[in-house]
Amino acid sequence: MTTAARANGSRDLPHPALDEIRLESVLHALSDPMRLQVVRELAADGDELSCSHFDLPVTKSTTTHHFRVLRESGVVRQAYRGTAKMNGLRRDDLDDLFPGLLDCVLAAAARQADRLGG
């Protein structure tokens, strides 16, 4: 850990490099309704949100699993800020690798939510 990271109280979490992000991993991460909800909220906010911001109807350990899948697939970047684990959508990376994919998935998810009343 760098001196700056220690001074900021942050801990490094493993993230895939851009060339390690695979389409099948991204699609798997986005295929779960809870993970898709997280991605939709991050996209709508446009900034980093803490894990505690999300009110998912699952246990804390399941929520932790969902965030790990999103991070390990390259969909989100996580960083500790003090005691909060902050999450940011890796939109630029995903758009560079898979142009239009994220926008299409988010638009389809919004249409589905409207259709199903959620």
Topology:
Blueprint: H1 3-7, H2 23-30, H3 33-45, E1 49-50, H4 60-73, E2 76-81, E3 84-89, H5 91-97, H6 101-116
Antiparallel strand pairs: 1-3, 2-3
Helix pairs in contact: 2-4
Short summary:
This protein has helices at 3-7, 23-30, 33-45, 60-73, 91-97, 101-116, and strands at residues 49-50, 76-81, 84-89. With 118 residues, the chain is mainly α. It has one domain: Winged helix-like DNA-binding domain superfamily/Winged helix DNA-binding domain (Arc Repressor Mutant, subunit A, Orthogonal Bundle).
List keywords for this structure.
about 120 residues; mainly alpha; 3-stranded antiparallel beta sheet; 6 helices; 3 strands
User: Spatial order of the strands in the main sheet?
Assistant: 1-3-2
The level 1 CATH classification is Mainly Alpha
Distance between the termini: 42 Å
Helix-strand pattern: HHHEHEEHH
Q: What does the overall shape look like? A: globular
How many structural domains in the coordinates? 1
Give me the CATH fold name: Arc Repressor Mutant, subunit A
Helical content band:
40-55%
Structural class: mainly alpha
Q: What this model shows, in words?
A:
- The structure is a single chain.
- The protein is mainly alpha-helical and 118 residues long.
- The protein has a single domain, classed as Orthogonal Bundle (Arc Repressor Mutant, subunit A), CATH 1.10.10.
- 53% of the residues lie in helices and 12% in strands.
- It has helices spanning 3-7, 23-30, 33-45, 60-73, 91-97, 101-116, and strands at 49-50, 76-81, 84-89.
- It has a 3-stranded antiparallel β-sheet with strand order 1-3-2.
- Helix 2 packs antiparallel against helix 4.
- The termini are far apart.
- Mean pLDDT is 90; it is low at 1-9.
